[in-house]
Amino acid sequence: MNVSKAGRLTVLLGLTAFVVGVSWNLSYADGKGIFASKNCGSCHQTEGPATEKTFDDQLKKKGPELWYSGSKFKKEWLVEWLEKPTTIRLLKYNSVTEKNTEKHPALSKSEAGEVAGYLMTLTAKEAAAAGVTEASTPMGKNLFQKKYGCVGCHSVKAGAQKVGGVSGPDLSEAGKRLNGNWVYAYLKEPKVFKPVKRMPVFVGIINDNEMKTVAGFVAAQK
Amino acid sequence: MAKKILLVAFFSIGVMAFAAKGTAFAVSAEENYKFYCAQCHGMDGKGEGANAKPKVVGIDLPEMSVTPRNHTSPEDMNKLTDIDIENAISGGGASVSKSTIMPPFGKTLTEAEIKDLTAYLRKLCKCKGK
């Protein structure tokens, strides 16, 4: 009797695992399928590594690469944003002279969930957990706004208003969107994630602790 | 012997040319200027890039707390030596006692590119400096 019970339990557990596995695979496949059917790949690269070697390589791209989106984004934000996109880059992608007036296509709620599920599977090993604490510390603020002048290109909240530059992505709510460990990896391994970009290379200028503090500050802006 | 010296000289020039390229992404100083510097200094170098004056491009954000240098102004640019300019590009504003809003590009551009950019700035201001 006990043996039979154990057997039934094993079968049940096996079936559950199978159903969960199948639905995960379906969900992944659906998200990937929706991504393809909406032609998202015409603007967004989903396969790494980065191959840009010249300005022209970067300038011909129409949108941010997503091959490491699972490391970069927070899933909850991604689902919400895909359904109701907002402007993150105040200037048109790859431009320093034109305002971004483009409306990113919106997905239905279910599509947003499926596509986010797929995008979260696209990760980069270089953005592994590095112990970044997502906190808006005075030190982080000082590094971001004064010592390294990040605010010259990126906007952040200052009380009720927003201040800062516009050529880099808006970071005023970056904490909802970005993982601190990825921000750190982006600073530490610029050639891996975006070899050709307008932001200067800070490797060899900012020490490791400061990089983590800045990354934590960025990922705490909400 | 003379042939050997000539060969070594050609080889060295070739190596130097290759080394000067480094990880450069641009083919000219103007391209570098328009990719990096124009964000704050503007495409024409007058110090009115989108980061400095967001309203110029239709974005309702306050102006930058400091005014990026107008590279077309001989008055301003004549106050600087070429070394001052190279140091500002390489080490950022802090390295020449100016604003830290100007970030360091010493790990982004090669030394040769920084020298070429300095020469490009001299063309913009039509001045030679101190």
Short account of what is shown:
The complex is a heterodimer of chains A (222) and B (130). Chain A has 222 residues and is mainly α.
Topology:
The complex is a heterodimer of chains A (222) and B (130).
Chain A: H1 2-37, H2 55-59, H3 69-72, H4 75-83, H5 109-119, H6 138-147, E1 155-158, E2 161-164, H7 174-177, H8 180-188, H9 190-193, H10 208-218
Antiparallel strand pairs in A: 1-2
Chain B: H1 2-21, H2 29-41, H3 74-77, H4 82-91, H5 111-125
Helix pairs in contact in B: 2-5, 4-5
What report would you give on this structure?
The complex is a heterodimer of chains A (222) and B (130). In chain A, 46% of the residues lie in helices and 4% in strands. Chain A has helices at residues 2-37, 55-59, 69-72, 75-83, 109-119, 138-147, 174-177, 180-188, 190-193, 208-218, and strands at residues 155-158, 161-164. Chain A is built from ten helices and two strands; from the N terminus they run ααααααββαααα. Chain A is mostly helical and 222 residues long. In chain A, α1 (2-37) packs across α5, α6 crosses α10 (208-218) and α8 (180-188) packs across α10. Chain B has a single domain (23-125), classed as Cytochrome Bc1 Complex, Chain D, domain 2 (Orthogonal Bundle). In chain B, α2 (29-41) packs across α5 (111-125) and α4 (82-91) crosses α5.
Question: Roughly how many Å is the radius of gyration of chain A?
Answer: 20 Å
| Number of structurally distinct domains of chain B | 1
CATH topology of chain B: Cytochrome Bc1 Complex, Chain D, domain 2
Structural class of chain A: mainly alpha
Question: Helix content range of the residues of chain B, please?
Answer: 40-55%
What distance separates the N and C termini of chain A? 58 Å
Query: What is the averaged pLDDT score of chain A?
Result: 92
Quickly give the CATH architecture of the largest domain in chain A.
Orthogonal Bundle
| Helix residue percentage of chain A | 40-55%
DSSP strand (E) fraction of chain B? under 5%
Integer tally of domains of chain A: 2
CATH class of the largest domain in chain A: Mainly Alpha
Order of helices and strands of chain A: HHHHHHEEHHHH
Mean pLDDT across the residues of chain B is 87
How far apart the termini of chain B lie comes to: 44 Å
Helix and strand string of chain B, N-terminal first?
A: HHHHH
**Which structural class do you get from the secondary structure elements of chain B?**
mainly alpha
